[in-house]
Amino acid sequence: MASSLQDTLVTYEELAELELEFDDVETEIIRHQVQLTQPLYEKRHKIVAQIPNFWPLVLEQAPPDIDEYIQPSDSALLLACLTSLSVSHFEIENGAKGDPRSVAIKWEFSENEYFEDRVLEKKFWYRRAEDGWAGLVSEPVDIKWKKDKDLTGGLLSMVKRVWDEDQALEKAGKGGAKAKDKELTPQQKELKKKIEETGLGGLSFFAWFGFRGQRISAEESRLAIEKEQKQRKLRLEGKKVEPSEDDADDDDDDDDELDGLEIFPEGDTLAVTIAEDLWPGAIKYFTQAQEQDALSDLEFESDMELDLEELEEDGDEAPPSKKRKAGGE
Amino acid sequence: MASSLQDTLVTYEELAELELEFDDVETEIIRHQVQLTQPLYEKRHKIVAQIPNFWPLVLEQAPPDIDEYIQPSDSALLLACLTSLSVSHFEIENGAKGDPRSVAIKWEFSENEYFEDRVLEKKFWYRRAEDGWAGLVSEPVDIKWKKDKDLTGGLLSMVKRVWDEDQALEKAGKGGAKAKDKELTPQQKELKKKIEETGLGGLSFFAWFGFRGQRISAEESRLAIEKEQKQRKLRLEGKKVEPSEDDADDDDDDDDELDGLEIFPEGDTLAVTIAEDLWPGAIKYFTQAQEQDALSDLEFESDMELDLEELEEDGDEAPPSKKRKAGGE
């Protein structure tokens, strides 16, 4: 099909600028949405806390984009001890002016045979690189596995050690992961080998806690945003702007994948799917689980007319007055 | 996995009520979003109107959910004469208080060898049925095909005739499509036979204009919403409510599909994908098309520094000052 931009008076910059304006508005909408839904998510949290296995059941019905990463042994763990899941937009909490696209995903567990942790929280920061790339970056979260219970076979801890080493090198001014033409350290070589040996098929869902993504510090992101805004302003005033590095080469995006040091290459996409699909759709997935599980004989306690205000105070109970079959959506 | 709602004090109604509250907030967010993005879509409209083949190129890069319905002959038609595509939330335009989820998708064409129409607009109304189902319904839009050019092979016109007959029957108080245990009319039988013969594979994209969806009148929807709100209010006040028909049996949703009278069963889903993916992502898809088409030698007119204000007035031009390769996103 004939291409066309060359025959027109519209520039690439003009389209890119328009996209940035859409981006600004979208960000504001997310901010607004987070504010409006916050009280509802709190109410939901109180209600579902009373339902045993709510989150394991939700995860059992998770859409394929999530389900594909959950191995049978992960399912068994989750069913045994996952008590709560929550998503927060931590950079805009309590009136803070951060990016509403940054998310934290918090998993809570009861005492269990697998690990010592009661809470595992993974944060994703929305950052912009100097080359124009923008997206979510994270830090490895280690898990204190009990003896012989590590579902990642030591991989996650190794990722954490390499990360710590990286941070130390960076602090010492040795460039860390950002250094060009860098030699891999012995630890990095070991990790790379282990990842290659493991492969990604059959990898535990818990390896996701090791996702790092691109190395973009808060400071680098701040400078990149500042620079971009300056250029946009100049362009809007009709001034000439040196072509920036906006046209990021996609190949740069996954340095770490190419390095073979990323334990869970799709970690950011998975985080977005959890935050934008599983989290808002939890009741829908739970209802589906109920239907599937017990099409024939499951009955709900129904029409209890719990006063919601009362519930919010103390989760008080009223006696069930009648029963009814689990209905469809 | 063990089901759990039966062991708790949480009721099905409580979860359903919470979902309705989320629904209310979501609707408000869409309303807000439509308002905020409106000026940007207008600006985009003016810019892309200057780019030949903008919309055919966008459609060429459409995501699989859309692309799967576009046959090669549809592509040829679109490339030959599609000049504009637009999505509007017509029930909330000019401050109207309708449902922001209702959408109209408007296609504009230059004079062409295929049909007489210059504009084809398909509207989707967000409605609620008495049984609790909610979603998009539509009406067939006929196309004035030129001789031997009908890509639907007469199917679309047949759908329109059955629709008209249906409306007439309903007006005459004969129940139309809603009548229970109804006999198919001769026209309906003919349509059903034709759809069976045609099958859905290879069906023209333009058959989508014939999608009808569930038969829910504006009045039925209004009453259903009213009834539901009354029940919600009672429940919130802690009063007993007769179980409503909220648990709509999914099988009821596609009466027409079962009847074999729906020409394009996925028509509502396709409309949503166009409105929520193709429409907001048009520049992204266009840029992809540019990259694919002309990786090697395409050059953009660049750095023209068109003043955007000026552009909005009259699309005035400035001479290109330099060129630059088509960059990435």
From TrEMBL, chains A, B:
Composition bias type Basic and acidic residues, residue spans: 234-243
GO BP annotations, alphabetical order: nucleosome assembly
Gene3D superfamilies to which the protein is assigned, alphabetical: Nucleosome assembly protein
Pfam families found in the cross-reference section: NAP
Source superkingdom: Eukaryota
Annotated stretches, region: Disordered: 234-264, 307-329
GO CC annotation: nucleus
SUPFAM superfamilies with a match to the protein in the record: NAP-like (SSF143113)
Comp. bias regions, Acidic residues: 244-260, 307-317
Similarity field: Belongs to the nucleosome assembly protein (NAP) family.
Name assigned to this protein: Nucleosome assembly protein
